[in-house]
Amino acid sequence: MKLSDQLKELAAPVLEKVLAHPFWSGLRDGSLPGESLAYFVEQDTGQLLPAYARALARTAAAAERDAHTALLGRSITGTLEARDRLREKYAQLAGGMGLPEPPTQPPEAGPVTHAHCAFFNASSAASFAAGVGALLPMVWFNHQVSDDLLERRTPGSRYAEWIGIYHPGEGYRYAVRAFLGLADELGETASPAERDRLIEHFRTGVRHEWAFAEASWTRPEWPV
User: pTM value?
Assistant: First the structure.
């Protein structure tokens, strides 16, 4: 079995729970409270995507092959461009969707976002394989979730237009395929210990994907 197939199998139960989560199902049918989507956009664009881009950069610096550095380097640019695009489009659509206006300053990271960002930071500093394992879940889940939103959204619902904008486009499939190919390559060439490390960091990253959806739904705050 290819390593990518093993990772998909490992992620499948969590992905099923994510797709059924009230945050994403509420976004599909328009029933999601506006404050939840606002929280998601603030935390995603203000904290999580920049942290992901920095983790890509650190992992790229640890790569031994130029092709791997190039793949991760392109993803840095793509991540930050996606961040800017989502911010801009949310600001344009917020009033029409009855949503809070975006903050003028980056928001403080919520407790769950802070843990997710710290995970990216620690994993990308640990080893190349650990960094790849930590980065892959966001690529994979974003692909699956955004496709599902587009396919199952309720036409004419409150967030139908936003869902179309949130989807990264057909070209994103090539990036996902490249990341899965990188995992397969490491599955064949990395030491058994590094292969296990990649899998374990992937497993933890998958859990963070569920936790971020849950946090966007509940909007937790620091106690002090």
Answer: 0.96
